[in-house]
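Example record for the data management plan.
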Amino acid sequence: MLLARFWVRQTGRALTADGEEFDLTLRGCSNESIEAAQEAAHEKIRRLGAVIEAGGRPAKDYLYGDRPMPEPILEEFHDGGAELMAAITRNSFGCDVLNTQDLLFADIDREDTSAASEQSSVARIQQIVSANGLSARAYRTAAGYRVLVTSARFEPGSAASELLMKQFDSDALYMRLCRIQKSFRARLTPKPWRCGSRKLKVGFPFTGPYDQERFNEWETEYNEKSAHFATCRFLGEFGNPVADGIIQSLVTVHDTRTKAMSGLPLA
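Corresponding structural encoding:
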């Protein structure tokens, strides 16, 4: 999984091709230390500054780059030893996200949320699970469906995982994210605008106490609003029940944090 434990935001001076000075602020990250993250940020400033000074234009990153996403790690799950199997991070919207090393999630967007569409979609999921000899759990989300494959472990970005996600009609951008970030992702908490909360207007990593205070205020409101909503609703389990202890524990984490059995409205 492409995660980083230490994040900083650093500012350095740079020159335009005309010799005009300006400030350049970039993020740096590391799994070693804050100091290493600071060094990484300064190196990025140096490289980008050299490109700008030479008259070049920085490459415009796609939505998901090839570096860890700037998300704090809130919780880690290990295999009983040192190997990291999953982690919960907080995304740019302020939502908790479960990142898994080899537990496959497939998100399926559907505009039609009618009962007839749900019945048809669940039948299609069950058909794919059966055809591939798998076991899986299906969930309803606010904008479609989510499938959690429990009978086998998959490598993010592998031919097998992408073929299966394509069969489920999983979003192409989500598949690219899994490939680049070397993990599968599932949002655990509601999107703020779906539960009546304000948009998070402070980015991570925080630049100081003021940013932290603004986030804390937002988080208090968000937690109050999101408490009345679930992120997904459990629809059914297909195939033989899972026997893998680690997968079982992550299923429990997912179902508990998303309130999948609560019957609350989805957000």
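Summary line stored alongside the record: The radius of gyration is 21 Å.
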